Amino acid sequence: MPSAGWDGPGRKRVRFEPGEDFARALDAEDGLAPLRDEFLIPASGSGRARVYLAGHSLGLQPRRAKAYIEQELADWERLGVEGHFKARNPWFSYHELVAEPMARVVGAKAGEVVVMNTLTVNLHLMLASFYRPTQGRSAILMESGAFPSDRYAAASQIRYHGFDPETSLLELSPRAGEHTLRTQDMLDSIRENGPRVALVLLGQVNFLTGQAFDSAAVVEEARRQGCAVGFDLAHAAGNLELQLHDWAPDFAVWCGYKYLNSGPGGLGGCFVHERHGRGDSLPRLAGWWGHNKATRFAMPAEFDPLAGAEGWQLSNPPIFPLASLRASLELFDRATMPALRRKSERLTAYLEFLIGRLPAGFCRLITPSDPAQRGCQLSVRIGVDAKALVERLAEAGFICDLRPPDILRLAPVPLYNSFMDVHRLASALAQHAHAPSAPVR
Ligand SMILES: *Cc1c(COP(=O)(O)O)cnc(C)c1O
Question: pTM above 0.70?
């Protein structure tokens, strides 16, 4: 176990220790620890804060979200329709307040990013522009273990264009006996199938295994083969340090309610690389909010798209979800992604270290040990009755999730989780751990 017990390559080296004092010491020297107070943490019946490790599924509520939403409710009450231009934060341009902070989170230029819709909707809008199949080149190449919505979207687009997913949906699978994909296999597959592939579509962090892919290498190979390339950043945005502009995929989409804490069903993000300019050469599904701001309310018959990602907007955006997202993005700006990532690597390595001390055969880590190949989430395969284990953990105040039949996903989030959270969880696991009759695969 080369990295367990250490803080990641190129980082300050810390030899982890198992005791609770050590967790407290790590919290004491954590410069980001005060940010935890900016979030509302679910409490148990007795009022004691629970240990929340499900930020990969739904991020916690920023304390300020309520005030920001109430501000818009008050302006609506006070101004009615005039709030579009006269609200303290005019609704006409409200989405612009989040474009720059969102672009900083994903390593893009502000004009390359827009906050709109939800993830699968944005994926379809991007596929409408960037999936342009022809007889000879009709395939979408993706991971076999992609999130189901992405697969449904891809298969339905293939059918929509008159092709057959049976032959036009290519899926990359891990080698027999392995849980995660090897970068070289991904690149080889893109090279071998290149001439048939219209689009490479990759979830940058796999939702189930927590594996992070080498995005720069994938984009480079896909573009060398003449394929369009897009990312689903649902589990990467707000989790990893991304460099979308430099990696230069054609597009990326993500949701705002996982690591970005925008609230249930919150707004997603969309990136279109600046080399597409106004997107004049691309077909697109258009709506009035993507139209030139100067003439939008003159309502001319011809669509005149805004430059950049904003030109893909369809409708005027919902203000309340934008308000809660704003509250969260302010905290990302306060923390900065590089600092969050430094803490995250340490927090996750610490969890890995403590899991490594559980009785042999109780569980098996399927997320890669290499910090460069994962974000904050660790996925562990449980050898005992996993459902019963998660129920016992829930009774004891832990919120984490189980992907049936046996994968426990644990995400210590650097914005609001502490080293003590991780220590508490590991102690609870140790209490319930007993070796299964057969070792875990
Ligand atoms: C969470 C998630 C989604 C969810 O999509 P919505 O359209 O926001 O409901 C889609 N794809 C991936 C990879 C996800 O992790």
Answer: yes
